[in-house]
Amino acid sequence: MSTKTKLTAVVGAATLAIVLAACGSQSEPSGAEESPTADSTQTGTAVEHNEADTEFVQMMIVHHEGAIEMADLIVERASTEQVRELGERVRDAQGPEIEQMTGWLESWGEELPSDMDHGGMDHGGMDMGGMDQQQAMEALGNADGAEVDQLFLELMIEHHRGAIEMAQDQIDNGQNTDAIALAEDIIAAQEAEIAEMEQMLEGS
Known about the structure:
DUF305 domain-containing protein, mainly alpha, Ferritin, 0% strand, signal, DUF305_CopM-like, disordered N terminus, 8 helices, Ferritin-like, single chain
C-alpha cells in the first residue's frame, strides 16, 4: 500500500470516530428533555390557588376539628340512637375532608393550622349561639340525658351554618377548582343535615 493510500485510510478512520463521538454526545440529553420533571409539574399545580383558597382551607380544617370533637362526645353520651348515629356520620364525613385539605395546603406550600397562631384568625364560623368551641364542649359535658341530645343538635345546627357561610365565601372568592368543589359539597351536605336536625328537635 502506498504512503498516500495509508494516509487517506488513517484520515478517514479519524473522521468517522469524530462523527460517531459527536452523535453519541448529542443523543444523551435528548431523552431528559422530552418529559417535564415531577418538580416542574408540582410547581405548576402549586400556584393554582389564591389567598381566599388558603384561608378557607385553613379555617375549615379548624372548623371540622371542632365538629369532630363535638361528634365524638355525643357518640359516647347520646341518649338516643338517632342522635348517636348522626354524630358518627358527622365524624366519618369530616375526618377524610380534613386529610384532603391538609394535603392541599402541603402541596401549595402553605402553612398548616397546627403550625399557626390562631389568635389573630377570624373564628366567626365557630360561634354557636354565643358560645365558642370550648364553651360548647363544657356545656355538652355538663348536660345529662335528653338535654345532651337537644343541646348537641342546637349547637351543631349553628356550627353547620358557620361552615356554610365560609363555604359560600370560598365559592365567591376562591380560585382553586378542587377547593370550590369541596365548598359546594359542604353546603349541600350540611344544609341537608341542618334540615334533619331541625326535624329531630321538633320531634323531641
